[in-house]
Amino acid sequence: MSHSNNKKIFLTHFQLLCFITVLSLTALFSGNTLAAENANESAVTSELSAEASKSQKVTPSKEMLDAMSNLDNNDRAVSDGLTNMERIEKYTKSGFVHILPLGLDHILFVLALFFSTIIFKKLFWQITAFTLAHSVTLVLSSLGFISLSGNIVEPLIALSIAWMAIDNIRNEHTSSKRLWVIIFFGLLHGLGFASVLSEFGLPQEAFLTALFAFNVGVELGQLTVLLAATAVFYFWSQKPSYRAFVQVPMSVIIALVGLFWFFERIL
What we know:
Blueprint: H1 3-42, H2 46-55, H3 62-68, H4 84-97, H5 104-114, H6 120-142, H7 150-170, H8 178-200, H9 207-237, H10 242-266
């Protein structure tokens, strides 16, 4: 068996291990959630219910909390008293800031998608799938329909970065099945965005407007990352050496960072 085949088998096994880890963590959380629900049913006081609710609060990652530090404390008010245009400007800006400059985990995931292919059509569908998926969970989580602990979400986001980068190394040409993986990871990233937005606060009198503006800011941040990457690497992407000297090395770096964040967040 050739060295190339050995390497592909190793990366395939590693991805399977990552996938098993995702399922295990999700199952663990589901079990904990079920136990918590049973405990809440047997509780007789409102104080115990409040404590259970606090225990499920989503905690953003350090990278996303750093992005919030650039914003004034006045921006965190739940009732802002702004006009619609001022509110749209404020939340669009906050969504953009949560991607650039300090939303490093989301930036790396977008770059992992970028380095997966030089074919614009494939990249377009991958980015579209990711955008739609994280928009769904961002809206549902912000409206209170779904909730997942940050202790689960943030390590899985880091693992998703490593997974996509390793897939770039394994496969020179992406398959259509990759879209379903991107959709799944997009749902996770949406929960990450929602955790930050919950800390930032939404005005009660214009909840949907602020939520929409925040999501627009996130998409503008992602688009800026893609445009910057295209400007830097487009010329080289037309050369035969692109995969050996750009696509694979950059994916290796992204994978290592993702794995470092994963272990950092679970330890």
